[in-house]
Amino acid sequence: MSTETDPIFETDFIKEMTRQVRALDTYGTCNGWSPEKLLAPFILTKEKRALIPIIGDPDDLIIERVKCLYNAISVLIEKECNLLAVPLVHLTHEGFGRALITVGKLVVVEKTLRDVHRFGFPSLSKMKDEADKLLGIALERIGTYPEVAGL
Predict the structure, then answer these.
(1) Which of 71, 72, 102, 148 is an S-S bond match for 16, by CB 3.0 to 4.6 Å?
(2) CA-based angle 18:21:130, to the nearest 5?
(3) What ranges do the domains of the chain cover?
């Protein structure tokens, strides 16, 4: 399905993911690429996943993809609540760690990461579903503890 016919490319999340990938392209190698091509590395089908060894270390490109995801979610949180959302991704060289997003003094997203060398989603819609789930959790926590989020 191309970007002209797939409505997912009109969603705020996919637009923000495209911005995040372009922001990391400091040498301009992706200039002129379609959003579909830019986001293709985030898609990891069952067949592709089966080719990746169970144990491995993530490379810099994979780590940047993980950061892109949490940066995009942070931007969407900021758009929704007008408060600064700060992502933090901490990984060991073996691909284990955590991703946190804080708003004020409140941790609104906390995700344990493992096997990051196999990071990816079966489809863009699955990636968007995961982001929407995390965004919903974050906004619920901000709504529950607005005084902590405002610090």
Answers:
(1) 72
(2) 65
(3) 7-149
Per-residue pLDDT of 14-27, as tens digits, reads: 999 999 999 988 89
**Does the pLDDT of residue 65 top 70, yes or no?**
yes
Pick the CATH number of 7-149 from 1.10.530.10, 3.40.50.10490, 1.10.510.10, 1.10.3100.20: 1.10.3100.20
Neighbours of 29 (CB within 10 A): 8
* pTM recorded for the entire structure: 0.92
Report H helices in 46-145.
46-51, 60-81, 124-144
Helices then strands, each counted (H, E), the chain? 6, 3
